């Protein structure tokens, strides 16, 4: 299908504005994506028509709001091809989803000295929760290094597996390098050793189709705000056998079956992991965002964004002093770079004055920066509403700034 980008852009009101008198060029989509009108209107619609606390009310509005939340759960289930809606837990974001697994898993499945494997290219959200558990439960972290081009070798992961390995937790796509990791191979490897695998899909689920049953991952996490949905909502997918086994992460309303001061029994899945009033407005709007993505088609998105990434890589590579950080053949929508002699922060600030929004800094991946021997990078990250003209503007902007130094 040919994507009508001009028409798509009209769905995103924020993109039409000027910044410092220049048309906004929004290339910070890995940090957060913009929202289509249908998502913005859905939030207004829920608050204007069906707002009521869910699950607990017998009244009309409460039932409508409950249906809306549970319908959104089914939409997420369909989107990632989970076998049951019970396997979809709503959280506040990918970060909370990983904290949930780290907390519940290490507490119930690990003994001091047991090992969790992560990689050098992880976002802090897939490092710190495990470090916190290391300090509480005595688990150890094993770190798989990256090789040149910014890739992970499955053989290197295998070398880190021992009889004490309890879980592998790995990014599907690096938010700095753009590398698409061979997660299907990692999951197969893990399962050969009876080790479950968590996939951090925060940078993949919006870019190409994911089928959790085909992948056979044990856990998968992502955030709504990076996939055109609202902030403050996230998803934890977990195989039912795992979610059944794990203890609750937080206590409170919604997650209980019966409470006395002596003993509490817990609700079934997925409610056992959803303590307190859930963000039913956010979940409903996430469902709307998924419908928006599905209407365009994830395969179409994948193809178009791949084209944008190739175009941008070629274009930027022609700039004098350009160094692309992360050169794997398997990349998705993220282009990190440095320009010789110019601090990323200075370049980012001056690009902003030209209306161009890129990210600068360590991108919540300081250990990766240390491994690369750099302080930070500039990062342009693409969504399906970006255009070749915007990439031309980025390249022209970088050249203009470079001339000032
Ligand atoms: C790879 C990766 N994992 C996890 C996260 C955390 O996402 P959130 O801040 O939405 O919880 C991010 C955010 O940038 C990310 O890029």
What does this structure look like?
This protein has 405 residues and is of the alpha/beta class. The protein folds into 2 domains: 5-30 and 297-404, Aspartate Aminotransferase, domain 1 (Alpha-Beta Complex); 40-294, Aspartate Aminotransferase, domain 2 (3-Layer(aba) Sandwich). The chain is 41% helix and 17% strand. It is built from 14 helices and 17 strands. The strands form 5 sheets. The chain has a 7-stranded mixed beta sheet, sandwiched between helices. It is globular, with a radius of gyration of 22 Å. It starts with a helix and ends with a helix. 46% of the residues are buried.
| Proportion of residues in β-strands | 15-25%
How are strands sequenced across the largest beta sheet?
Answer: 4-10-9-8-7-5-6
Low-confidence stretches: none
Mean pLDDT: 97
* Overall number of domains: 2
Number of helices: 14
Tell the overall outline.
Answer: globular
The biggest sheet, with number of strands, parallel, antiparallel or mixed sense and barrel status, is: 7 strands, mixed
CATH architecture of the largest domain: 3-Layer(aba) Sandwich
Can you identify the CATH superfamily of the largest domain?
A: Type I PLP-dependent aspartate aminotransferase-like (Major domain)
Whole-Å distance between the termini?
Answer: 44 Å
Radius of gyration, in Å, reads 22 Å
State the share of residues found in helices, binned by percent: 40-55%
The count of strands amounts to 17
CATH top-level class of the largest domain: Alpha Beta
Class from secondary-structure proportions: alpha/beta
CATH fold type of the largest domain: Aspartate Aminotransferase, domain 2
Ligand inventory: pyridoxal-5'-phosphate
